[in-house]
Write a structure and sequence with these properties.
The protein is mostly helical and about 300 residues long. It folds into 2 domains: about 130 residues, Farnesyl Diphosphate Synthase (Orthogonal Bundle); about 170 residues, Farnesyl Diphosphate Synthase (Orthogonal Bundle), CATH 1.10.600.10. Helices cover about 70% and strands about 0% of the residues. The protein is built from 18 helices and no strands. Helix 4 runs antiparallel to helix 9.
């Protein structure tokens, strides 16, 4: 297995003395929400959770890091080859700390390879830059990305019961849908709009209209409809959570992250372009409270 041809990353050229610390810093930098949630996992599991989240952050950036879809697909295929090599026992490429950390997690925690492949497939679909036909398609994408990541994290935590996975799915779905709303300003700046096309058309929202500021109020209507789906998944997760394995809490804490961000969005009248939304950063105290209570 060769180094990533489009993004060489080695401990030497990054000045990394401790790969584990590097992985933790990468997650804290690119996925602060989940980094905070991992602080409530037993220390023996944190390194493997960070490896998983660092891998997810790495592939999530692929669509925005390449100038054309073909280059992005080369990177996605490189990661497919890495996962295949690890699964076959050939190991990860030397000099790529995220791949090395992922290999260690896959070996130690028996991560489900198909769910890793689903994550890659989900990111592959983003490379063409289009949105979603409707909210059902948006949720299918969230299932392929956020839900699969949550289930892989449960693999790390050695949680395998169906109820915990169902709760994690609703938690992950709510977090993903809200995340797609929170990234609208970033996507609009990159000439993309990753929202349901039927809702946008019904509200009369276009990319050009958002870039000019003309359709900002209409976008609030679309955001409120998606927020209703977020609340639906949050309610289902909460109702089922009492039957979940307590060891799943570091994943179920995403519920708190989504709930708090949803409250901020509602306070801004669902204006996803409001500075309050773009500046929002979750604190650790709500997570501490939920973790201490042991339930959502």
């Amino acid at each position: 297995m060769t180094a990533d041809p489009l993004s060489p990353r080695t401990e030497a050229n990054a000045g990394i003395g401790d790969t584990s610390s590097y992985i933790a810093r990468e997650v804290r930098r690119h996925d602060r929400d989940r980094f905070l949630a991992t602080l409530f996992a037993p220390s023996a599991y944190r390194g493997d959770l960070w490896a998983l989240y660092a891998f997810n952050a790495e592939i999530a950036r692929i669509p925005e890091s390449v100038s054309e879809p073909a280059l992005g697909r080369i990177k996605v295929q490189w990661w497919r080859d890495v996962i295949g090599a690890i699964t076959d026992g050939r190991g990860a490429p030397a000099g790529h700390p995220i791949a090395q950390a992922l290999a260690a997690a896959m070996t130690a925690r028996s991560l489900t390879p198909q769910w890793l492949e689903d994550l890659l497939a989900g990111r592959d679909t983003e490379l063409d830059g289009g949105g979603f036909a409707d909210i059902a398609a948006m949720e299918r994408h969230a299932d392929m990305t956020s839900t699969r990541l949550a289930w892989l994290a449960l693999d790390v935590l050695q949680v395998s019961d169906a109820v915990s996975r169902d709760v994690a799915r609703h938690v992950a779905m709510s977090y993903a849908l809200l995340g797609m709303l929170r990234t609208v300003p970033f996507h609009v700046g990159g000439n993309r709009l990753m929202l349901p096309e039927d809702l946008l058309a019904s509200a009369g929202v276009t990319l050009a209209g958002l870039q000019s500021g003309q359709d900002r109020a209409a976008l609030c209507v679309v955001a409120e409809q998606i927020a209703a789906r977020v609340r639906h998944h949050l309610a289902l997760a909460k109702a089922l959570s009492r039957m979940a394995d307590p060891r799943a809490m570091p994943v179920l804490l995403w519920w708190t992250l989504a709930d708090r961000a949803l409250r901020v969005l509602a306070s801004a009248n669902h204006d996803v372009l409001h500075v309050r939304i773009m500046a929002y950063r979750p604190g650790v105290l709500p997570l501490l409270w939920r973790s201490w209570r042991g339930r959502l």
